[in-house]
């Protein structure tokens, strides 16, 4: 039985801090498959998400910073696109407030537009602009739209992205109340999305919920370098209506897509 995949990306999340302020993630960490990931530098969102979402290295996809200049993303389809090409009955959904991930007008997008599937209602994308309007507001809109999509439509493969934690880290540092408060807000969104999945899931409709991040933050806030904190990421994978996956104890960030696609084979 193919599993529905819900991949949740939380930008700029330091796991140790998250485990203190996110009871949802803390419980998932203990009840699920878990593996640490080490992100290749430069630890910017553009290169890191491109690797995590396309299953290719920085050198292959050509995204070396957040300008996306010279990228080769057209030649390296994302997880949602690859799932559709693998089985053209697949429905996909993406929602993000950082435009390069999903907005066809701009630097990317990492998630391919796929107009024909969009017109056929097999591919839905929600684009918001947290850079302009702030991620506190935009993440809330993303969470509400994702809850509705999962509850009402149950897409086969989804990517949901939150950036408020990273925004707080840049503005206030990664050890203060603003950063932990942003984590608490995202925790509520994670809990709601899990409730939506649990309301649908069964042996006939198994789900795999996966959470990851693109990089960490140094204490004073910021990233891009090659320190252990900046390169630290993780994968939590939780089965609902099925067992947790039996993935390797460790793997490289670009291998995540292949592991997820194997759950759809």
Give a short summary of the structure:
With 265 residues, this protein is an alpha/beta fold. The protein contains 13 helices and seven strands.
Overview of this structure, please?
With 265 residues, the protein is of the alpha/beta class. It has a single domain (4-262), classed as 3-Layer(aba) Sandwich (Alkaline Phosphatase, subunit A), CATH 3.40.720. 43% of the residues lie in helices and 17% in strands. It has a 7-stranded mixed beta sheet, sandwiched between helices. The radius of gyration is 17 Å and the shape is globular. The mean pLDDT is 97.
Keywords:
7 strands, 265 residues, 13 helices, seven-stranded mixed sheet, alpha/beta, 17% strand, Alkaline Phosphatase, subunit A, single chain
Topology diagram in text:
Blueprint: E1 4-10, H1 15-21, H2 23-31, E2 33-38, H3 45-54, H4 58-61, H5 79-86, E3 92-96, H6 99-102, H7 115-119, E4 123-127, H8 130-133, H9 135-152, E5 157-162, H10 164-172, H11 177-200, E6 207-212, H12 228-231, E7 232-240, H13 256-262
Parallel strand pairs: 1-5, 1-6, 3-4, 3-5
Antiparallel strand pairs: 2-7, 6-7
Helix pairs in contact: 1-2, 1-11, 9-11, 10-11
């Amino acid at each position: 039985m193919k599993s529905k995949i819900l991949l949740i990306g939380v930008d700029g999340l330091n796991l140790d801090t998250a485990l203190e302020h996110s009871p949802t993630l803390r419980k998932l960490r203990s009840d699920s498959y878990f593996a640490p990931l080490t992100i290749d530098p430069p630890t910017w969102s553009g290169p890191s998400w491109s690797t995590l979402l396309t299953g290719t290295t920085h050198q292959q996809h050509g995204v070396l910073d957040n300008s996306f200049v010279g990228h080769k993303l057209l030649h390296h389809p994302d997880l949602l696109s690859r799932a559709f090409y693998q089985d053209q009955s697949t429905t996909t959904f993406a929602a993000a407030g950082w435009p390069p991930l999903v907005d066809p007008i701009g630097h990317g997008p990492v998630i391919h537009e796929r107009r024909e599937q969009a017109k056929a209602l097999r591919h839905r994308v929600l684009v918001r602009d947290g850079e302009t309007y702030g991620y506190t507001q935009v993440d809330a809109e993303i969470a509400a739209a994702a809850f509705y999509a999962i509850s009402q439509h149950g897409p086969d493969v989804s990517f949901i992205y939150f950036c408020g934690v990273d925004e707080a880290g840049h503005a206030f540092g990664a050890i203060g109340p603003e950063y932990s408060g942003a984590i608490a807000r995202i925790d509520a969104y994670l809990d709601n999305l899990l409730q939506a999945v649990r309301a649908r899931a069964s042996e006939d409709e198994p789900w795999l919920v996966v959470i990851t991040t693109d990089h960490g933050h140094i204490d004073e806030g910021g990233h891009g370098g090659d320190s252990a904190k900046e390169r630290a990421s993780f994968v939590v994978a939780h089965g609902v209506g099925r067992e947790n996956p039996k993935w390797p104890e460790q793997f490289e960030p670009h291998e995540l897509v292949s592991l997820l696609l194997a759950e759809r084979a």
